[in-house]
Structures are given as structure tokens and as C-alpha cells.
Amino acid sequence: MLRLIQLELQKLWLNKASRVLIIISFILPFTVLILSSIKINFFGFFTLELGELGIFNFPIIWHITTFFAAQFKFFFAIVVVSMIGNEYSNKTLKQNLIDGLSKKEFILSKFYTIVFFSLCATLLIGLATFLIGLYYSSYTEASIIFREVEFLLAYFVKLVGFFSLCLFLGMLLKRSAFALGFLFLLFITESITYGLMKWKLNETVADGIYNFMPLQSMWNLINQPIQRIVMTKFPEKADIMYDYAVHWYEIAIVLGWTAIFIFLSYRLLKKRDL
């Protein structure tokens, strides 16, 4: 496994565009650190400091940071589809197979790299969240600090699932631009399909099917925290209550899609004439 990861890291680091995108994909999620220190002066009347609003208190901070950090996953998605496109355009895929790398090892090298970068991103976001929380949170009990740390697991699974989808699209279309375009098309298709199902079926059935679709199932792992933030300020507003927790079955669905995408990528490579 380490040999395969080292092989991929060497390829990515030697490519200037991939190197830049990797650095950006790791730096941008840490804008939450900048966000936590922002002070907005309203014409001298008062100063609003986001860190003092309570949104960086434990345990809600785990929810907020993982949700917003996940929005920057598209930068590494470009790296994933590019590392497949470059294999075809530079003929390195065929050369690797000639040099003794099996097709199974080739796919596994990509998947291991995806897991490696997802794990690194998760650990970094976890560390940043922990430090910000220690600085701003008024709660210091360990039971409260680590109460919702499962959002980190959801973040990790979300990254692995999304990048595995990108890997499959890269294998399917062989071109980075086409793969990214198809990713957007998939999002539109899921939304249109959901709208049609709500029109033809009842909303409960439509929601149930929609939640099993690839992109929507990944989105469901970490729900938006805006309503939750409002709930902390206005607890009497029962009409804005919603389920924001991380559920095991949502993780299972995304892991299932991850396995499907990796398997389909392998089948494509196995049957394709190189």
C-alpha cells in the first residue's frame, strides 16, 4: 500500500498544476481560522466579532467547520480527475502496466491516494477545530468538547465518496474537463429527477429515493448548520427544528457508493483496450 501511495504522490508532486491545486485544497479550508478572528465595525456604533457569537463553542463547532470545509473539496476533485486524464494523455498508464503494475494495483493506487489525502484533510480540520474551540468555547468539559466529533468521520467519508466518484468519472471519460462537466450534469440530473418524482409520487417516497442518490447522499452526511446556529440564539422557535445529527445509515449509503465507484473503475480499466 505504501509503495502505491508513494508512486502516486511522486506523479502528483512532479506535476506543477497538481502541486498547486493540492496546496490550495489544503489551505482554503483553513479560512475558518481567519473567519473566527474577523471583527466587523459598524460605523463606530459597535463591533461584531464572529468568535464572540458562540458559533465556535463546543460541540457545535465540529458541525460548522466540517460543513464549510467540505465546500472546498472541488479543488482536490480537479486533482483526482486530472491524475486520470494525465495517465491517458501522457501514456503513463500503459507504461505502468508494462513495468509490472497490475490493473488492480493501478486502481488501488488511486484509491489509496484518495484515502490518504482525505485522512490528512480530516486530521488538519480536526486539529484546527479543536484549537479554535479551546480558544473561544466557554465549555471545557471533555464530555462536551468531544460530544459531536463524529462530524469528522462524516467529513472523511464524504471526501472519500466524492473523490471516488471523480475517479470513476475520470476513468469513464478519460478527460478532466469532460469528467468535471459530467459531475455538474449529474447534480442537475439528480435535482430534475427529484422534482419529477415529487410531481408523480408523494413527497415521502420521493425524498426516500432522492436520499439514496450519489451526490445527495454525500450532502446528507453533514447538513447545513445555519438553522442550528439560529436555534442556539432563538431556542423558542420550534418551527426551525431539524435533524442535523450524523446517522450510521447515511455513512453506510456513501460507503456503498464508494465501493461501487471503485469497482466500476476497475471493471472499466480491465475491459478497456489500452
UniProtKB/TrEMBL annotation:
The keyword Secreted does not apply. Keywords: Membrane, Transmembrane, Transmembrane helix. The chain crosses the membrane at residues 20-40, 60-84, 111-136, 151-170, 177-197, 248-269. It comes from the Bacteria. Pfam families: ABC2_membrane_2 (PF12679). The keyword NADP does not apply. This is ABC transporter permease. It comes from Winogradskyella damuponensis. The lineage of its organism: Bacteria, Pseudomonadati, Bacteroidota, Flavobacteriia, Flavobacteriales.
